[in-house]
């Protein structure tokens, strides 16, 4: 199988590490060669963060480059736009519609481009937007946004639902398994 | 079992399997997780040292005693540990010792982009360079073998992409290794007479290591299928990018041992493939070696000395077609990192910025105080430089600068190398005001314990440096403690200490809000009837406060209820729940 590329983008502290851990676990269990490239350190302090997940028969590079991403899963509205040049022509953007103002917007130097998803759609990008924050709260924790989005992503894969649930069980602390399974289901079925 | 591990965790596993029983390190991105992962094993000793020099000497002591040891640091940490390094090359080791050093091409979390390979060459110490997690694990074991066989410390060089990328790893078993300690002054006392006798050994060892490099499986030729009329010499993560682009179509000499580099292996490879490209990030280390041994290669004229590479860098350099992309017309505002909502550092910065004080800064989360809207810093250089720099600034500036300049330094950084600068201030008497931003943790690198926190790497109670007594005992009489959430107190004390005609230390003390024992309070909210949109609160730069429809609003998912913003609002618009 040719290598598939998933980018997880968002704001430092939003829990992208758990999402990539979940994907990594699942894909290894499915028998793929997998590489995941994470961000630690400085940019985790509220900066823009990007994680690359690549899988296939044999994966060399740990990073995804311009025009290569099959999926961009964005935890925040404009972060999807920041990395859009990395998307393949026929790729899919899954985006949480939550708005988190970056500092230049907070201090009034720049404005938040709220219409950016519409522009993407107008340019023919397949955008799957979802209010993951509300769904996560419904599941019992605003922090479970990341798993809501994984639920949404799962719809695009042929991997059985139970396998995803099994991966959640392996990656999440026992106390949080139920909330996260619920968040996953809400993302999947919404 | 097959497992996905980041390079650093795989390296820690390899070090463990090799029977290492002592690691001493100082944190630094992207090296930190090596030590944190090693600390999870029960039957080994692991610690955070106050700085990299102490860490390396501790690992050396353990090796001398007969236990395999290691120390880990980021690239700039090696500058701090360079002193023991160069002479350890002469003494060699007893039990094997490895030095893990992690470079940061692209400067994801660093103040420069220096290339550690130069240290291996300069100190004449062998260096291995893995390109993925499995190699990190395997190379650790080989490194210990080399260390003992050739009587030398051995470097393992990581870089951000290898350190923080997960790839599949198969684990093995641990083997225990112990050597006897035998007194040997000629080998271990590096005074001139002994060192003079020892230097020839170092040169001869390099010659033997070069022989080893010719045939070691660390360096391998991958024969291409013949579609390309050139060959590539590469290493580390650049190897992965080369394979991503060319697959098996090109012949590759993949170097796992970066110092010393083989001679004949390279010459033979070049003779076979004809035209040779060297693809390496940062400086032309392999390229220079090739040219020295008479092999004409193409390197830095095609591949930059700046930043990280990727498959795109390589495809572009070889003129391969670019991928189709989507472009938007909308400009997306940048999202730089910033101090957390409720961060204790922010209060002190607000006061310093408000009073237009010149601030010599240092390295940590508090470096982010240089960003808008606070713009509070004038300088950051390297760890500890704020304190020594302030001393020099005030010696040069005299009365003109002394009462309007301070330095700020974090607790971990102060322990690392700030205290020596403070001793200089006390000894050579500059009228300097040093502010220690004591948040009781090493924040920037992901919350490690340090000598001021009272806990060790495993979270168990440990010795605790009393900052006040330390400052007193080096000769600072005026030592004050303030709470950075209390802006009035901070402002008063800063003014008083700046006015004094003697050196002083202000300890700005409150724990980092991300620590488990710091319980967030209920978030505040802005009463829209009271808020008049004056934007005074926006000068504070808390990421939980933003401005929508002519009013300030608080993001309840970010706010930790510290309450500092409430004191800034002239109209009492910030309210806590229940009001
Ligand atoms: C010589 C060197 N070693 C390590 C680092 C990595 N590093 C950057 S900041 C920092 C420590 C910050 O801790 P602290 O001073 O307590 O400030 P905080 O981040 O908690 O505000 C470290 C270890 C470095 N930049 N230079
Ligand atoms: S991690 Fe702690 S010290 Fe660092 S910015 Fe956040 S609150 Fe401040
Ligand atoms: S109380 Fe104010 S300053 Fe503190 S975290 Fe909340 S919004 Fe930020």
In short:
The complex is a heterodimer of chains A (190) and B (579). With 190 residues, chain A is an alpha/beta fold.
Task: Describe, in plain words, how this protein is organized in 3D.
The complex is a heterodimer of chains A (190) and B (579). With 190 residues, chain A is α/β, with parallel strands linked by helices. Chain A has eight helices and six strands. Chain A has one domain: Pyruvate-ferredoxin oxidoreductase, PFOR, domain III (Pyruvate-ferredoxin Oxidoreductase, domain 3, 3-Layer(aba) Sandwich), CATH 3.40.920. In chain A, strands 2-3-1-4-5-6 form a six-stranded mixed sheet, sandwiched between helices. In chain A, α5 packs across α6 and α5 packs across α8. The longest helix of chain A is centred in the first third of the chain and has 14 residues. By secondary structure, chain B is an alpha/beta fold. Chain B has four domains: 214 residues, Thiamin diphosphate (ThDP)-binding fold, Pyr/PP domains (Rossmann fold, 3-Layer(aba) Sandwich), CATH 3.40.50; 99 residues, Rossmann fold (3-Layer(aba) Sandwich), CATH 3.40.50.920; 166 residues, 3-Layer(aba) Sandwich (Rossmann fold); 51 residues, Alpha-Beta Plaits, CATH 3.30.70.20. Chain B contains 21 helices and 22 strands. In chain B, the strands form six sheets. A seven-stranded mixed sheet of chain B has the order 3-2-4-5-7-6-12. The longest helix of chain B has 24 residues. The model of chain B has no long low-confidence stretch (mean pLDDT 97). β2 of chain A pairs antiparallel with β8 of chain B. Bound molecules: thiamine diphosphate (TPP) and iron/sulfur cluster (SF4) (2 copies). The site of one iron/sulfur cluster has 14 residues of chain B, from α21. One iron/sulfur cluster binds next to α21 of chain B.
């Amino acid at each position: 199988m040719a290598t598939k590329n998933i980018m997880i983008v968002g704001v430092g502290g939003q829990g992208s590490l758990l999402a990539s851990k979940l994907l990594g676990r699942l894909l290894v269990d499915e028998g793929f060669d997998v590489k995941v490239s994470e961000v630690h350190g400085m940019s985790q302090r509220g900066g823009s963060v990007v994680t690359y997940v690549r899988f296939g028969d044999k994966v060399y590079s740990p990073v995804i480059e311009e025009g290569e991403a099959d999926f961009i899963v964005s935890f925040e509205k404009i972060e999807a736009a920041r990395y859009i040049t990395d998307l393949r022509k026929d790729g899919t953007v899954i985006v949480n519609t939550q708005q988190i103002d970056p500092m230049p917007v907070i201090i009034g130097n720049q404005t938040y481009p709220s219409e950016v998803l519409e522009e993407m759609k107008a340019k023919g990008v397949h955008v799957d937007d979802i209010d993951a924050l509300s769904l996560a709260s419904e599941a019992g924790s605003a922090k479970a946004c990341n798993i809501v989005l994984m639920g949404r992503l799962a719809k695009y894969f042929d991997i059985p639902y139970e396998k995803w649930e099994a991966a959640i069980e392996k990656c999440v602390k026992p106390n949080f398994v139920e909330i996260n399974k619920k968040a996953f289901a809400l993302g999947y079925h919404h | 079992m097959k497992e996905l591990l980041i390079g650093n965790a795989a390296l820690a596993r390899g070090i463990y399997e090799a029977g290492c029983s002592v690691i001493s390190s100082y944190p630094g991105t992207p090296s930190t997780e090596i030590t944190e992962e090693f600390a999870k094993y029960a039957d080994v000793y692991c610690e955070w040292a106050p700085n990299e020099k102490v860490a390396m000497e501790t690992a050396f002591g353990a090796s001398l005693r007969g236990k395999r040891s290691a120390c880990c640091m980021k690239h700039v940490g090696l500058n701090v540990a360079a002193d023991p390094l160069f002479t350890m090359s002469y003494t060699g080791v007893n039990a094997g010792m490895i030095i893990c050093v992690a470079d940061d091409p692209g400067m994801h979390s660093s103040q420069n982009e220096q290339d550690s390979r130069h240290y291996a060459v300069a100190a004449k110490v062998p260096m291995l360079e893995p390109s993925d997690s499995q190699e990190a694990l395997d190379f650790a074991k080989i490194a210990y073998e080399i260390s003992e066989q050739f009587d030398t410390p051995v470097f393992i060089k990581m870089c951000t992409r290898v350190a923080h990328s997960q790839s599949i790893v198969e684990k093995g078993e641990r083997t225990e290794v112990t050597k006897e300690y035998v007194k040997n002054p000629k080998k271990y006392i590096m005074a001139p007479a002994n060192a003079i006798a020892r230097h020839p050994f170092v040169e001869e060892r390099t010659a033997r290591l070069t022989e080893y490099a010719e045939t070691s499986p660390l360096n391998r030729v991958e024969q291409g299928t013949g579609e390309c009329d050139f060959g590539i010499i590469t290493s580390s993560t650049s190897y992965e990018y080369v394979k991503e682009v060319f697959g098996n179509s090109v012949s590759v000499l993949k170097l796992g041992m970066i110092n010393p580099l083989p001679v004949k292996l390279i010459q033979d490879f070049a003779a076979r493939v004809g035209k040779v490209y060297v693809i390496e990030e940062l400086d032309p280390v392999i390229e220079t070696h090739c040219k020295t041994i008479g092999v004409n290669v193409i390197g830095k004229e095609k591949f930059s000395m700046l930043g990280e590479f990727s498959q795109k860098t390589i495809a572009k350099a070889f003129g391969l077609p670019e991928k189709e992309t989507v472009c938007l017309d909308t400009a997306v505002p940048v999202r730089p990192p910033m101090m957390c909502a409720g961060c204790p550092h922010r209060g002190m910065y607000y006061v310093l910025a408000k009073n237009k004080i010149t601030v010599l800064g240092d390295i940590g989360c508090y470096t982010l105080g240089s960003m808008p809207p606070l713009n509070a810093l004038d300088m950051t250089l390297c760890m500890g430089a704020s304190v020594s720099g302030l001393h020099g600034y005030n010696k040069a500036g005299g009365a003109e600068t002394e009462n309007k300049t301070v330095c700020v330094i974090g607790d971990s950084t102060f322990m690392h190398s700030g205290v020596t600068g403070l001793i200089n201030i006390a000894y050579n008497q500059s009228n300097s005001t040093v502010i220690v931003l004591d948040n009781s943790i090493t924040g920037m690198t992901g919350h490690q314990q340090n000598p001021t926190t009272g806990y060790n790497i495993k979270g168990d109670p440990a010795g605790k440096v009393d900052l006040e007594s330390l400052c007193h005992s080096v000769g600072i009489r005026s030592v004050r403690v303030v709470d950075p959430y209390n802006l009035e107190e901070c402002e008063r004390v800063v003014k008083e200490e700046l006015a004094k005609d003697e050196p002083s230390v202000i300890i700005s003390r409150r724990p980092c809000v991300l620590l488990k024992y710091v319980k967030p309070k209920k978030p505040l909210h802005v009463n829209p009837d009271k808020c008049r949109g004056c934007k005074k609160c926006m000068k504070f730069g808390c990421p939980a406060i933003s401005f929508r429809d002519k009013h300030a609003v608080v993001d309840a998912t970010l706010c930790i209820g510290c309450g500092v913003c409430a004191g800034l609002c002239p109209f009492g618009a910030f309210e806590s729940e229940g009001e």
